[in-house]
Structures are given as C-alpha cells and as structure tokens.
Specification:
3 strands; 111 residues; Rossmann fold; three-stranded parallel β-sheet; alpha/beta
C-alpha cells in the first residue's frame, strides 16, 4: 500500500500541467459535473444566512470546483488543500486567471 506522500509524488509538474486536459478526456461531462455540484451545494446551503467558507480537498490541478462555485456564489470564500505542490501551483494559476486568489486560502498538505 502506498503512503499518501508517494501518491502525491506521482503528480509532478508535467502531470499537473496535463491534468486539466486528461481529466476532461477521461471523465465525460467533467465541467458539467462541477457545475451541478456547485448548484446542489448552493441549494443545500441557501437556508443558512451566514457567510460561506467551503473546504475543497484535492483542489489541485484545474481548481474547477472552486471556479464553478465562485461563479455561482460570489460571496463564498474557499480553502483549497492538496498534497501535491505541482498540482497546487497549477490550481493557483487557474485561480489567478479567474480572479479568485483573494477569495481562496491555499494550503499544501493532507486532510
């Protein structure tokens, strides 16, 4: 059995940069699934009037979960965690492109 550290190490810079493209090839409807999850979460949390802070575990790579939720809910803030530094850097690039770094606390590590 591999340790979490060994599993995270397989996501080096080259693999992290390919993750967005590969995930969309391997998982038909990848973006639609992220949008659907964002809608379901927003509907589930609608009754709570407090500010929302969402934990996204395994946020590296595309950061698509955060992007989809942020587009739907402009008041939400996020905490992104990933054990792979290259995957986390790729996610930070995507968050920057979408102007979401100010709304996201990014952490390297395990949950």
């Amino acid at each position: 059995m591999k340790s979490p550290l060994e599993s995270a190490e397989k996501f080096d810079s080259a693999r992290a940069n390919e993750y967005g493209r590969q995930s969309r090839i391997a998982l038909a409807g990848y973006d639609a699934c992220q949008d659907l999850v964002a809608c379901m979460l927003a509907a589930s949390l609608e009754k709570y009037r407090l500010g929302k802070k969402i934990l996204v575990v395994g946020a590296g790579g595309t950061a698509q979960e955060i992007i989809a939720m942020a587009r739907l809910e402009p008041g939400w803030r996020f905490t992104a965690v990933d054990p792979s530094e290259p995957m986390l850097q790729t996610a930070k690039q995507q968050l920057a492109v979408n102007n979401l770094l100010e709304r996201t606390d990014v952490h390297l590590g395990h949950v």
